């Protein structure tokens, strides 16, 4: 699936679809081979009506779905929800991109992400790029299943404060 980014933005087009995690080979290259998740994605173009140059054209990118990862604490696989909600400002070429980045690194420019306008942008690759950006480097469970069981065991062995209170009341 290929779009002309500037045309897409200027004509305020919207596109959405589903992307199976298993087909995101770059996203999944270091992840478990079994990938049951499916990403729902949406791409919307828009422009600033007063200006016709590329600098005032945007792509809104959204994607949501889960990817199977290995918890880096307990080494068990689990499904991690990824959520992309980003806006990319289109620029005419790489030179403009570098100029914008230079401004930003000096603290003058706005905090914006840029994308070089492309007459043949691969939509799936763009969605996958955005998913890769939000994939944590070392994913971990909020609470590891093993840790929770260990914690429960610790709790049953420890006298509860309420039990201690009940003992006091008996006196
Ligand atoms: Zn874990």
What does this entry look like structurally?
The structure is a single chain. With 171 residues, the chain is α+β, with helices and mostly antiparallel strands. The protein has two domains: 2-140, no CATH class; 143-171. Helices cover 31% and strands 32% of the residues. It is built from five helices and seven strands; from the N terminus they run βαββββαββααα. The protein has helices at 5-10, 94-105, 123-134, 145-157, 161-170, and strands at 2-3, 14-20, 38-47, 57-70, 77-91, 113-116, 121-122. Strands 2-3-4-5-6 form a five-stranded mixed β-sheet. β5 (77-91), α2 and β6 form a beta-alpha-beta unit. It is elongated, with a radius of gyration of 24 Å. It starts with a strand and ends with a helix. The mean pLDDT is 86.
Q: N-to-C SSE series?
A: EHEEEEHEEHHH
**Proportion of strand residues:** 25-35%
Overall pLDDT: 86
Counting DSSP E segments of at least 2 residues, the number of strands comes to 7
Which oligomerization state do the chains in this entry correspond to? single chain
Q: How is the biggest beta sheet arranged?
A: 5 strands, mixed
User: In angstroms, what is the radius of gyration?
Assistant: 24 Å
Number of helices: 5
Tell me the helix content.
25-40%
Ligand set: zinc ion
Blueprint of the fold:
Elements: E1 2-3, H1 5-10, E2 14-20, E3 38-47, E4 57-70, E5 77-91, H2 94-105, E6 113-116, E7 121-122, H3 123-134, H4 145-157, H5 161-170
Parallel strand pairs: 5-6
Antiparallel strand pairs: 1-7, 2-3, 3-4, 4-5
The structure holds zinc ion.
């Amino acid at each position: 699936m290929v779009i002309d980014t500037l045309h897409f933005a200027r004509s305020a087009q919207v596109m959405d679809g589903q992307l199976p995690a298993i087909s995101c080979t770059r996203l999944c290259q270091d992840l478990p081979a079994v990938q049951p998740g499916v990403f729902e994605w949406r791409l919307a173009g828009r422009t600033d009506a007063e200006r016709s140059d590329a600098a005032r054209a945007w792509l809104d990118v959204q994607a949501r779905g889960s990817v199977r990862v290995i918890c880096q604490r307990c080494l068990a696989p689990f499904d991690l929800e990824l959520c992309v909600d980003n806006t990319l400002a289109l620029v005419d070429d790489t030179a403009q991109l570098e100029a914008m980045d230079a401004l930003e690194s000096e603290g003058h420019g706005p905090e914006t992400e840029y994308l070089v306008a492309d007459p043949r942008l691969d939509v799936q690759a763009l969605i996958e790029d955005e998913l890769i950006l939000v994939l944590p480097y070392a994913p971990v469970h909020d609470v590891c299943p093993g840790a929770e069981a260990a914690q429960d065991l610790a709790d049953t062995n420890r006298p509860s404060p309420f039990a201690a209170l009940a003992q006091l009341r008996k006196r």
